[in-house]
Design brief:
single chain; 196 residues; 6-stranded parallel sheet; 35% strand
Length: 196
């Protein structure tokens, strides 16, 4: 199946495999799309304009919004929706059916520095990636910041503008800076979308 950006065909295939050919394209009227050859795409992935993907995996039927960057060694599951202006860095795993709102930022380093103790610019060898996991069905509101080394539980909801500094339990609703538990989603039969 061909990669598509808002209805415009883009060179390359989204067939679940990595590709040798370059998939960077500046199609007239379509905006710039940069998909590195080492990206593993699922089937029927949809892209908006102005994206930058390299060394990552994107699952079947995912939707990637405009101005999204997904770095190497990051994974986005199937049927996820990643909204515009979102940054998904190395070490982030997003499971299936996750919603990520506009302008969400993930981090992967608790103590970022520009230089080493000797004053040299840091390289990839000077720090260790700290992983973040977003479990199946979770939703992250627009403008949230997700710090490294956290797990956002299955079906959890992170409120817009929140700063997540610690793990979020499954079915929890959290918000604020730092994000705090507000309540849990009711899991009783017949009330799947109600809150307690």
């Amino acid at each position: 199946m061909a990669i598509r950006t808002h209805g415009w065909p883009l060179s390359g295939q989204g067939d679940g495999d990595s590709h040798d050919e370059s998939r960077a394209s500046g199609l007239p009227g379509n905006g710039y799309v940069c998909i590195a050859p080492d990206v593993k795409l699922g089937k029927d992935v949809k892209f908006a304009k102005f994206i930058n993907l390299y060394g990552c995996e994107v699952g079947d039927e995912a939707k990637i919004g405009a101005f999204v960057e997904i770095q190497k060694n990051a994974k986005v599951g199937r049927r996820c929706k990643i909204s515009s202006h979102t940054f998904i860095c190395e070490g982030v795993t997003i499971e299936d059916y996750v919603f990520v709102g506009h302008g969400v930022t993930f981090t992967n380093d608790s103590y970022p520095r520009a230089t080493t103790p000797t004053g040299e610019l840091q390289s990839e060898n000077d720090w260790k990636v700290e992983a973040t996991l977003v479990r199946r069905g979770a939703s992250i509101g627009s403008g949230a910041t997700i710090l490294s080394n956290v797990v956002i539980g299955e079906n959890a909801i992170v409120g817009a503008g929140s700063v997540v500094t610690s793990d979020v339990p499954a079915n929890a609703i959290v918000a604020g800076n730092p994000a705090r538990l507000l309540r849990y989603i009711t899991t009783e039969p017949g009330a799947p979308n109600e809150y307690q």
